[in-house]
Amino acid sequence: MKKLPQTPSTLLAAVLGLSAFLGLALIAPADDTAAKPYKILATTQIPAAGGIDYVTADSDNRRVYVACGNAVSIFDLDTYKLAGTLAKASGRGVAIDPENHTGLVSGNPATFFNTKTLEVIKTIPAPGADGYVFDAPTHRFFIGSHRAPNLLVVDSKDGSIIDKVEAIGPNGTNAAVEQGVSDGEGHLYFDVANAHHIAVVDAKTLKVTGHFDLGEKGSGPAGLAIDTKNHILFAMCRGVRGGGGTPNCVILSAVDGKIITTLPLAGNSDGAVFNPRTREVFSSHGNGTLSVIKEKSPTEFVIQETVKTKAGAKTCTLDTKTDRVIVITREAAPGGGGQGGRPPQLLDVMFIGR
Predict the structure, then answer these.
(1) Three-class SS state of 11
(2) In 127-268, at which residue ranges do the beta strands (DSSP E only) sit?
(3) Regarding the domain delimited by 47-279, which CATH topology (the fold level of the hierarchy) does it fall under?
(4) pTM of the predicted model, to two decimals?
(5) Mean pLDDT for each consecutive 10-residue tract of the chain (354 residues)?
(6) Beta pairing partners, 68
(7) What does the longest C-alpha to C-alpha distance in the chain come to?
(8) What DSSP string describes 103-125?
């Protein structure tokens, strides 16, 4: 075969062609269906005394907090081992300010503490304390309640009470406040389970600025997650209005409350979280399942998979550095010896990833 002369133009074309081919190979997006399924990668168990509710990850400082009975157990996010205990701090869960190294246990009383030393700084009356939110721009903790006042607002720097919001339900009514989220731009969103809607609160003025009614699409919202980039809310509901106990996720605009779509859930949710890096939403359920929703675009969403966890694992949190979801539950310890003939309990902390 006659060898063709290599002119500068032909060499340039060849280089460009090879570069384009390699570039396409390097940046070609992975097929969602080819991704490995989620599974429990590790489980840490410690003796448990008392009930549990929420779990909170502090990814910056590599800690995860679980309120159990009259204490808070703190686990290392890298080793999964128990890293410390905050004694005599009963509550539902823990809000964390990673920058100021402070935490607030959502209970009555609420316990304000130093996350480095685990020293209790003060306690704060908080009747009916339930869900909680930390708003980073204002450095404020918000504790939600099912009774008035519906929100207790605490300065995360010194633990002082900033204000109380009496009622955030429609027309100034009392609200059963469940999970809340912040968009980091001055807006807070709260599930109002008894009124089947999302309440919007200004993080600075503490005024209720909106009510997003879920209409016929969902009732009893408990878990709530947010895509802050695309301003999308994911309300995990325990039923469809008028349609009985069919749990579903109502996906709606965080700007005007317009409902985008709904998707079925594998169980009754009490916790949700959005991973902005993978564009996935997680909803944890008491029946031992974790629904994974994929955001293909701001208008297209699909159920990607259902992960098997353990019964009672109804709340979740996210380690944003490893993309791992953490769920918690309690189970009977092997053998007997518990009080009243009941076996002793174990707290299970499960780390889920690919």
Answers:
(1) helix
(2) 129-135, 140-145, 151-155, 161-165, 177-182, 187-192, 197-202, 208-213, 219-227, 232-239, 248-253, 259-264
(3) Methylamine Dehydrogenase; Chain H (2.130.10)
(4) 0.88
(5) 42 45 43 75 94 97 97 98 96 97 97 98 95 97 94 98 94 92 98 93 97 92 97 92 80 98 96 98 97 98 98 98 98 71 86 97
(6) 52, 71
(7) 94
(8) EEE-SSSEEEEETTT--EEEEE-
